[in-house]
Design brief:
By secondary structure, this protein is α+β, with helices and mostly antiparallel strands. Helix content is about 40%, strand content about 15%.
């Protein structure tokens, strides 16, 4: 599992991840106490399913 700081290393800020969690979008996560963790496979799946050729390909979630 990865923390939000580990995921932020991909270019997604911790603030964006927090916003996505509050909106119910983005990669699924696990919360243990106050710590947010992202299972590695969940992150990989999220990136695999959000690959686009152009902006017109993006579908609003």
């Amino acid at each position: 599992m990865n923390t939000t700081k580990d995921i932020a290393a991909t270019g997604i800020s911790e603030g964006t991840l927090g916003y996505w969690r509050s909106m119910g979008v983005g990669p699924k996560f696990v919360k243990v106490g106050r710590t947010v963790l992202y299972p590695k496979e969940t992150i990989l799946d999220y990136f695999r399913t959000h690959v686009y050729q152009c902006a017109g390909d993006v579908v609003d979630e």
